[in-house]
Design a protein that fits this description.
By secondary structure, the protein is mostly helical. The protein contains 18 helices and 6 strands. The relative contact order is 0.12. It binds carboxymethyl coenzyme *A (CMC). Carboxymethyl coenzyme *A (CMC) binds next to helix 17.
Length: 428
């Protein structure tokens, strides 16, 4: 980071303070406001962190105006075309693409950590049969700290690496188990000869009485979804992981906190919410135009799910890639005329041409298309956000590992603007 300074002066008192200006490789420079309170007596106020960099990071870069997303400098378009998900995991964790030997070694390590302690499987039995798989996932990942405490010394780099391998490798097994439990079907053990995505699909769809042959088109579509969702810099769930672990909390507990944050419909829960919204539109008898009018109405809380993004104000580059995958898949399945998918295309068209959505720069986002793809592949609706969580696990871990060796690491502790009662005495 190069260091320049800017002077901030307080017009009311005439006091001044010099703040360091940090410039990164790309993107807007940041004022370092650490000395603002000491110098001028002020905190800064930024609900929703619209304008605040909470850390420096060398993992992922987003330019929301230009529609650019880079993992360790590589454009997402090139990674989606040329790499596998596990190569992307390696890149995010270690900073460079693996060579052939490193790739094979990493795949071997991950495939050898896919089984979960049998005690974890008994842990599921406490859930109601119809529990949402996200509810099972969030609690089971937190519970892993009770099963793998042999590697929880967060000051030990080898322990951190083993925890990273375990989380990436066990996530598909636990995700598939959570689904099998909700169906009342027996768990399917991982088969390490299979690739990461095939293994997950098999654990979800095979039964002991019958094998499962994954469709190669589905495998590649899901692999691209995984690559596109692998990291997205300081989004709500990643920031949650960083804040949780800033206190020294263990990685399993911290990732569980990230999963909880991801679950909300404004974040990873949006892919499930898109299909729920389309189904409601289809079955309600209300016209699409009326729904669009509701989305524009300030007094109505209804929003078009799968549209808009805090950072992308041009077009979500992930959406551009996944839109193509979505169209190809629907064509291949001959499903483009099914009512739900037809409706999705009409909605996409109307929103892209509507003045309100153009003015507010609300484009279809990655979740709009991933929701449609997952539905077309026959993935159950309640697994959509689980799949997002599986894919994002590596991003959360990469940020956690980066943070653990950051010399600027301190416990996260935001300030506030207090608006409650002034100090007063307890009534006599
Ligand atoms: N439908 C209708 N109006 C919208 C929408 C929408 N989907 N999104 C934003 N707006 C309007 C909003 O009402 C506001 O209008 P005004 O300026 O008149 O008050 C304006 O656009 C800005 O909205 P905001 O809520 O201040 O924007 P934000 O940056 O805080 O929220 C968002 C971003 C993604 C949460 C929001 O666009 C949204 O709720 N979208 C639907 C949920 C969704 O698809 N989420 C997935 C995001 S992509 C994957 C991920 O990152 O997890």
């Amino acid at each position: 980071m190069s260091e320049k300074t800017v002077t901030v002066s307080d017009d009311t008192t005439g006091n001044k303070v010099q703040l360091a200006l940090h410039e990164g490789t790309h993107g807007a420079p940041c004022f370092d406001i650490g000395s603002l309170h000491e110098g001028l007596g002020y905190f800064t106020y930024d609900p929703g962190y619209v304008c605040t960099a909470s850390c420096s990071s060398a993992i992922t870069y987003i330019d929301g105006d230009e529609g650019i997303l880079l993992y360790r400098g590589y454009p997402i378009e090139q990674l989606a075309e040329k790499s596998s998900y596990l190569e992307v995991c390696y890149l995010l964790l270690y900073g460079e693409l693996p060579d052939q030997r490193q790739k094979e070694e990493f795949e071997y390590i991950i495939s050898n950590h896919t089984m979960v302690n049998e005690g974890v499987r008994r842990f599921y039995e406490g859930f109601r049969y119809d529990a949402h798989p996200m509810a099972i996932l969030v609690s089971t990942i937190g519970a892993l700290s009770a099963f793998y405490h042999d590697s929880l010394d967060i000051t030990n780099p080898r322990h951190r690496e083993i925890s990273a391998f375990r989380l990436i490798a066990k996530m598909p097994t636990i995700a598939a188990d959570s689904y099998k439990y909700s169906l009342g079907q027996p768990f399917i053990y991982p088969l390490n000869a299979l690739g990461y995505v095939e293994n997950f699909l098999r654990m979800m769809f095979a039964v002991p009485a019958e094998g499962y042959q994954p469709n190669p088109t589905f495998v590649r579509a899901l692999e691209i979804i995984f690559i596109l969702h692998a990291d997205h810099e300081q989004n709500a769930s990643t920031s949650t992981v960083r804040l949780a672990s800033s206190s020294g909390a263990n990685p399993f507990a911290s990732i569980a906190a990230g999963i909880a944050s991801l679950w909300g419909p404004a974040h990873g829960g949006a892919n499930e919410a898109v299909i729920q919204m389309l189904e409601e539109m289809l079955n309600s008898g209300v016209s699409l135009e009326d729904y669009i009018a509701r989305a524009k109405d300030k007094d109505d809380s209804f929003r078009l799910m799968g549209f808009g993004h805090r950072v992308y104000k041009n077009y979500d580059p992930r959406a551009k890639i996944i839109r193509q995958v979505c169209n190809d898949l629907l064509d291949e399945l001959g499903a483009e005329n099914q009512p739900l998918f037809e409706l999705a295309r009409r909605l996409e068209q109307i929103a892209l041409e509507d003045d309100y959505f153009i003015e507010k720069r609300l484009y279809p986002n990655v979740d709009f298309y991933s929701g449609i793809i997952l539905r077309a592949m026959g993935i159950p609706l309640n697994m959509f956000t689980v799949i997002f969580a599986m894919a994002r696990t590596v991003g959360w871990i990469a940020h956690w590992m980066e943070m653990m060796v950051d010399p600027e690491l301190r416990i996260g502790r935001p300030r506030q603007l207090y608006t409650g009662k002034g100090q007063r005495d307890y009534p006599e």
